[in-house]
Design goal:
The protein is an alpha+beta fold and 170 residues long. The protein has one domain: Glutaredoxin. The chain is globular, with a radius of gyration of 15 Å. Belongs to the glutathione peroxidase family.
């Protein structure tokens, strides 16, 4: 099997069905041509304050074709116990999140969402590991739908700015 990611606008990342926090069905096709930062999130995690940094990135670069996409996950220490409505309220009230947030999903295991299976297949972690280790793992995807970076939960959103800018300027 060819391990080279599909770089066309029809890359599989754009076809995966998604459900937003408000229940609306989507695909990433509406973000084709944008630089995307895809993050598994949680509202009761030590990294939860990264929502503020993610929002700052989104506001700083949205007009240039950048979007942050948040995917709540309860697989790590049960740190996202709320339902979609509670998650939306928490994000807006505490961090002013205006970037798109999607329904709670699994990122590892038999019930992992197909988007995260695809992301993990296209960007391995440290030492070639596939599984996501914790909340706020981040995947940077270029305008053609190619995963160009995988960032640990400890990587702050602000420290990613130059990588994002280089993709926006490409």
């Amino acid at each position: 099997m060819d391990e080279t990611p599909d770089t066309s606008a029809n890359t599989p990342i754009y076809e995966v069905p998604l459900r937003a926090l408000d229940g609306q069905e989507h695909t990433l096709a509406e973000y084709a041509g944008k630089v995307m930062l895809i993050v598994n999130t949680a509202s009761q995690c030590g990294f939860t304050p990264q929502y503020a940094g993610l929002e700052t990135l989104y506001k700083n670069y949205a007009e240039r074709g950048f979007v942050v996409l948040g995917f709540p996950c309860n697989q790590f220490g049960s740190q996202e116990p709320g339902n979609e409505s509670e998650i939306a309220s928490f994000c807006e009230t505490n961090y002013g999140v205006s970037f798109p947030m999607f329904a709670k999903i699994d990122v590892n295991g038999d019930n992992a969402h197909p988007l995260f299976d695809w992301l993990k297949d296209n960007a391995r972690g440290v030492l070639g590991t596939e599984s996501i280790k914790w909340n706020f793992t981040k995947f940077l995807v270029d305008r053609e739908g190619v995963v160009v970076g995988r960032y640990a939960p400890t990587t702050t959103p602000a420290s990613m700015a130059s990588d994002i800018e280089s993709l926006l300027d490409a």
